[in-house]
Amino acid sequence: MIVPREIIAQVFSFLFGAIVGSFANLCIYRLPRDLRITTPKSRCVDCGSAIAWYDNIPLVSYLVLRGRCRRCGKPFGVQHWLVEFFVALAGLWIYRNYGLHVSSVYLFVLTTALLIVSAIDFEHRIIPDAISLNGTWIGIFAAALASWLGWEWFVSFKGACIGASLGAGILWAVGWVYEKVTGREGIGFGDVKLLALFGANVGLIGVFAALLIGSFFGSLVGLSLMLFAGKGSRTPIPFGPYLCLGLLVYALVGQAVLWKLFLWPNYIPS
User: Fold this and answer.
1) 173 CB neighbour count, 10 Å cutoff
2) Is the bond preceding 40 in cis, omega lying within 30 degrees of 0?
């Protein structure tokens, strides 16, 4: 039986996403610890034994080993498998909905970067400048290059510059006012730089959508912690992951759908 080419392409996009997800796990562990990405080889953090290639196959090895080191038996944590799975799903989703183009590959890279940021911020309460600042300049450069080449892109060069500057500026202003009124920091500067990355890649509308959707999900989680986990209103909650979630919903679900649902029911942007 001949397998249709489209099915092969979708399977490949899923598997390629899983491989990239394995690399994302490497970044999630090493970036906040200021370790090099390329070396040394992956090792168990408990016993220090190097992980063999057959124990480092995305998605499969974790299930075969039941999430534990072959040598010492210590658990790796389910996050490793989940990251690989979600990046694989993102690869499949983007290919099925946007095809294989320069813009869809760029969107996949952006999605992976935001997942890395979310995982690091959840665990360490930091957003690496290596992603936020570099991602901002790359977004502006990509918009300029796309404009010069005549490609359809997520945002124009002008829109990328305005989105990066105003996106960061708006969140910084909100945080400054909050700190002056309450006397305590409400928004970290890492979140401000993250909004610059958003604006450079999707423009000011994308920034507003990310803020709106991210605040909605962040509020749900905060209220749930207060009601069911006994957390107080002063319990710090990382905002970065919810901002990333807001942007991914905006970018992956579709701008027109989100305009219909959240922003302006009678208007669909061109």
Assistant:
1) 13
2) yes
Q: pLDDT tier at 70 (50, 70, 90 boundaries)?
A: confident
Give residue-wise pLDDT tens across range 205-245: 889 989 888 888 888 887 877 776 666 556 667 888 999 99
Q: Give the Cβ contact number of residue 29 at 10 Å.
A: 18
- pLDDT value of residue 229: 62
With contact defined as beta carbons under 8 Å apart, do 222 and 237 qualify? yes
Residue-wise DSSP of 39-98: -S--B-TTT-PBPPGGG--TTHHHHHTTTB-TTT--B--THHHHHHHHHHHHHHHHHHHH
Tell me the CA distances in angstroms from 124 to 17, 33, 92, one per residue in order: 25, 10, 29
Q: Say if residues 249 and 213 touch (Cβ distance below 8 Å).
A: yes
List the end-to-end C-alpha distance of the chain, in Å, as a whole number.
Answer: 43
8 Å CB contact between 14 and 89: yes
Give the global pTM.
Answer: 0.87
User: What confidence score (pLDDT) does residue 239 get?
Assistant: 84
d(CA 257, CA 247): 14
Which residues are paired to 75 by β-bridges? 68
Q: What is the DSSP letter of 233?
A: T
Confidence band of 184 (pLDDT split at 50, 70, 90): low
Residues near 182 by Cβ (< 8 Å), separated by ≥ 6?
none
- Residues in contact with 196: Cβ distance below 8 Å, sequence separation at least 6, in sequence order: 132, 133, 136, 164, 165, 167, 168
- Dmax (CA) of the chain: 69
* Beta bridge partner(s), residue 68: 75
Separation between Cα atoms, residue 63 and residue 72, nearest integer Å: 17
Between 14 and 236, where is the model more confident?
Answer: 14
